[in-house]
Inverse folding.
């Protein structure tokens, strides 16, 4: 089966959006890897504890010994082989994640701010060049 790629675009707050996405996915039993630059991951790590009162999304860093048993893995330099079985990759970073095409699903989160958009356009072109037509979902859809 080919990899399904979604771009969720014009997000007012991509990190908060990621929290909701991860919460919903893990409640359904999914296992995900989140790729992003370290400062984003540090903030996401804190938000996953606090974004909703009484809610917590179990997560660890990629190199944590419990990564194989944890539903959400955070990685600044993702190693998809090391991660094991994943239901999806969530990318908040500017670059394609190496090995993305070995997965069933990739979800690209793109903020509404101009600095995020040129890199997102490049990733969109790269997916298309690889023979995948990404689905683009605007914020609020």
């Amino acid at each position: 089966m080919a990899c399904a790629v979604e771009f969720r675009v014009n997000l007012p707050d991509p990190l908060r959006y990621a929290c909701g996405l991860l919460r919903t996915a893990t409640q359904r039993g999914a296992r995900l890897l989140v790729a992003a630059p370290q400062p984003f991951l540090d903030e996401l790590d804190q938000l996953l504890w606090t974004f909703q009162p009484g809610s917590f999304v179990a997560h660890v860093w990629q190199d944590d010994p419990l990564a194989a048993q944890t539903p959400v893995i955070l990685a600044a330099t993702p190693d998809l082989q090391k991660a094991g079985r994943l239901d999806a990759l969530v990318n908040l970073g500017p670059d394609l994640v190496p090995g993305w095409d070995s997965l069933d699903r990739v979800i690209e989160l793109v903020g509404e701010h101009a600095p995020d958009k040129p890199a997102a356009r490049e990733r969109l072109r790269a997916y298309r060049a690889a023979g995948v037509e990404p689905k683009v979902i605007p914020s609020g859809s």
In short: Strands lie at 4-11, 32-35, 59-61, 72-75, 88-91, 105-111, 135-138. The mean pLDDT is 93. The first helix runs from residue 14 to 27. The chain has one domain: 6-138.
